[in-house]
Design goal:
single chain, alpha/beta, N-(1-d-carboxylethyl)-l-norvaline Dehydrogenase, domain 2, 2 domains, 3-OHacyl-CoA_DH_CS, 3-OHacyl-CoA_DH_NAD-bd, 6-PGluconate_DH-like_C_sf, oxidoreductase
Length: 317
């Protein structure tokens, strides 16, 4: 497929992630077709995208070189799958996180597209070998897992099916880079991918520390937001270690490796997050931020505004 043929991307599903992907791809100058099997939903998605693009432009946070109106003109809505897939070189699926639903939609997609069209899933917890088990040509399949919200948090994990062709990984990496994302390649599939495995480790130890009466919910969040998170926003754990010893990573492990191993062996078992004893942690969190929609929506808006500011800071540096 020549570069002249690689202009149209189809997004399957018009929810939050689908809309975000459409905005990201349009920011890179691609024509984006949004499909939703619920009549009228994809058209409603474009109305929401129009509102968001205008707000981003007003805040000087619009991605890409095109104006909000120019980006909006690249996005179209479809209730018919055949029409939505016509001309696409790349398909980004964003439907419900249910294996059978994803398997079914990819079977439908494969019947309607050519053999070289790349099929990508936004799944956050289903491995490619399961998602694409009913696809005939699995060499063109992969997971492109974004981080919510993808417009501000640019990481995207590229996870191959065991049969995924290297060229498909390369093409997807190039595409994601071109539209301003920060793609990382996993060399093989693993449950939870990379981001969610690291996140799960943080969640588990944070939960244990609160559960064991070592620290409060409020303060464990401060450990991340005012401590680890400050540097992790710009450098990762490997570089952090490399910079925290006079002679780099090997020196760091000579100095602190034994202590790290000692601490790791003191970790307790994986918590039962749904056990009766977990209610006290939930209650403590809800005292800080009540779980009604009004409070949660306000905090999510605050989160997105802060992420927008951080994205701008990272862009400028």
């Amino acid at each position: 497929m020549s570069s002249s043929d690689m202009k149209i991307i189809t997004v399957i599903g018009s929810g939050l992630i689908g809309r975000s992907w459409a905005m990201v791809f349009a920011s890179g100058g691609y024509s984006v077709k949004i499909y939703d099997n619920q009549p009228g939903q994809s058209a409603k998605a474009i109305a929401e995208i129009k509102k968001q693009l205008q707000e981003l432009e007003d805040a000087h946070m619009l991605r890409g070189e095109l104006s909000a109106s120019q980006q909006l003109s690249l996005i179209s809505s479809y209730d018919d799958l055949t029409q939505a897939l016509e001309g696409a070189f790349f398909v980004q699926e964003c439907v419900f996180e249910q294996l059978e639903v994803k398997q079914s939609i990819f079977q439908d997609i494969e019947r309607l597209v050519g053999k070289v069209v790349i099929l990508s899933s936004s799944t956050s917890c289903l491995v490619p070998s399961n998602v694409f088990s009913k696809v005939q040509i699995r060499s063109r399949c992969l997971v492109s897992h974004p981080v919510n919200p993808p417009y501000y948090v640019k990481l995207v994990e590229l996870v191959p099916h065991p049969e995924t062709a290297a060229a498909v990984m390369d093409t997807t990496h190039t595409l994601m880079t071109k539209v301003g994302q920060a793609p990382v390649r996993l060399r093989k599939e693993i449950d939870g991918f990379a981001l969610n495995r690291v996140q799960a480790a943080i969640i588990a130890e944070s939960w244990r520390l609160v559960q064991d009466g070592i620290i409060s919910v409020k303060d464990i969040d401060l450990v991340m937001s005012e401590g680890l998170g400050m540097r992790y926003a710009f450098i990762g754990p490997m570089e952090t270690m490399h910079l925290n010893a006079p002679e780099g990573l090997e020196d760091y492990m000579k100095r602190y490796g034994e202590g790290i191993q000692r601490v790791l062996t003191s970790f307790g078992p994986v918590p039962d997050f749904r056990a009766e004893g977990s209610k006290s942690i939930v209650n403590e969190m809800c005292e800080l931020i009540p779980s009604d929609q009004q409070h949660l929506s306000a905090r999510k808006d605050r989160r997105d505004q802060l992420l927008m500011g951080l994205a701008k800071l990272k862009k400028d540096h």
